[in-house]
Amino acid sequence: MKLAPGLLGETTLVVTKADTASAIGSGDVDVLATPRVLALCEAATVAAVAATLDAAQTTVGMHVELDHLRPSRVGDRVTVRATLTAVDGGRLSFDVEATDVSGAVARGVVVRAVVDRSRFSGS
Fold first, then answer.
1. Which CA distances in Å does 8 have to 15, 29, 80, 102?
2. Which pLDDT score, from 0 to 100, does residue 1 have?
3. How would you label 12-30 residue by residue, b for 16+ Cβ within 10 Å and e otherwise?
4. Within the chain, where are the H helices?
5. Neighbour-count burial for 50-61, b at 16+ CB within 10 Å, e otherwise
6. Which of 2, 40, 69, 112 fits a 20 to 30 Å CA distance from 50?
7. CATH classification of the domain holding 96
8. How many domains is the chain built from?
9. End-to-end Cα spacing for the chain
10. What is the DSSP letter of 76?
């Protein structure tokens, strides 16, 4: 398998108190924090390409555009789906969407770069 548009990744979270804006410090209410939504989106993009990368490669985030459309409460199950939409050399673009039982929670675009893991080994 190679990197090509159409690859899909998914991640799911049941929102806990630790995932809320009040716990993370990005707000003062007990709803899913936007930084946590972003982390879920990035995890879904990583999952989308994990099986296609050489073991010596990984991806790193470059750019994010994210609209957090409505709140998810503690106990809600949120699923993020990432679809690889473009490959430009080592630059990968993904459409991401987070949903829960009530519909869309967030939508956006995540751009990641394919890199050699050795760049981050500290050696």
1. 23, 32, 10, 22
2. 59
3. ebebeeebbbeeeeeeeeb
4. 21-24, 34-49
5. eeebeeeebbee
6. 69
7. 3.10.129.10
8. 1
9. 31
10. -
For 54-81, how does the pLDDT look when each residue is reduced to its tens digit (9 = 90+)?
Answer: 999 999 999 999 999 999 999 999 999 9
Quickly tell me which residue has 């709140």 as its tokens.
71
Range of the domain at 15: 8-120
Q: In what order do the strands lie in the sheet with 57-68?
A: 8-14, 77-88, 91-100, 103-116, 57-68
- Please indicate, yes or no, if residue 2 is contained in any of the structural domains: no
Give kind and range of the element (H or E) at residue 87.
strand 77-88
User: Which of the four pLDDT bands, split at 50, 70 and 90, describes residue 119?
Assistant: confident
Look up the pTM and report it.
Answer: 0.94
> Radius of gyration over alpha carbons of the chain, in Å?
15
